[in-house]
C-alpha cells in the first residue's frame, strides 16, 4: 500500500527544502485579534469624538479624566498602533526586496510605533492625572 501525503509545495520546492518560515501563523493571528478588538474600540472612539465636537479644552480634559474613558482610549491607541506596525511590516516584507533597505525600514517602523505609543500614553496619562 502506497501512502502519499498531499502537499501544496511544488516538486522543486520539496527538493530544495523551501517553505514556510513558521512565523506567518502568529502574525496572521495577531492581525485578526487586533482587527476584532478595533471594531468596538473604533465605534466607541467615533462616538466619543462626535460628542466632543465643539467642546472646549476643559471639557475634553474632564472626559479624559474619567478612568474608564482613559483606559479605553489607551487600549484604542495601543491596538491601533500595534495593528498599524504589523500591517506596515507585512507590506515591507512583501514589496521591498533589498535586504538592507528592508531591515532599515522595518527597524524604523518598530521604533516609530514605539515612540508614538509612548507619546500617546504619556499624553493621555498626563491629561488624566492633571489636577
So how many helices?
Answer: 5
Largest β sheet strand count, sense and barrel closure: none
CATH topology title: 3 helical TM bundles of succinate and fumarate reductases
Full CATH superfamily name: Fumarate reductase/succinate dehydrogenase, transmembrane subunit
Taken as a percent bin, the fraction of beta residues is under 5%
How do the SSEs run, as a string of H and E? HHHHH
From the coordinates shown, what is the CATH architecture? Up-down Bundle
Separation of termini?
A: 79 Å
Q: What Rg, in angstroms, do the CA atoms define? A: 22 Å
User: Would you report the number of β strands?
Assistant: 0
Shape: elongated
CATH class: Mainly Alpha
Q: Helix proportion of residues, in percent?
A: over 70%
Overall pLDDT level: 89
Category from helices, strands and their pairing: mainly alpha
Taking pLDDT < 50 over at least 5 consecutive residues as the criterion, the unreliable ranges are none
Number of domains: 1
Report what the structure shows.
The chain is mainly α. It has a single domain, classed as Fumarate reductase/succinate dehydrogenase, transmembrane subunit (3 helical TM bundles of succinate and fumarate reductases). α3 crosses α5. The mean pLDDT is 89.
Layout: helices, strands, pairs:
Blueprint: H1 11-16, H2 24-52, H3 57-65, H4 67-95, H5 99-129
Helix pairs in contact: 2-4, 3-5, 4-5
Keywords:
131 residues; elongated; 3 helical TM bundles of succinate and fumarate reductases; mainly alpha
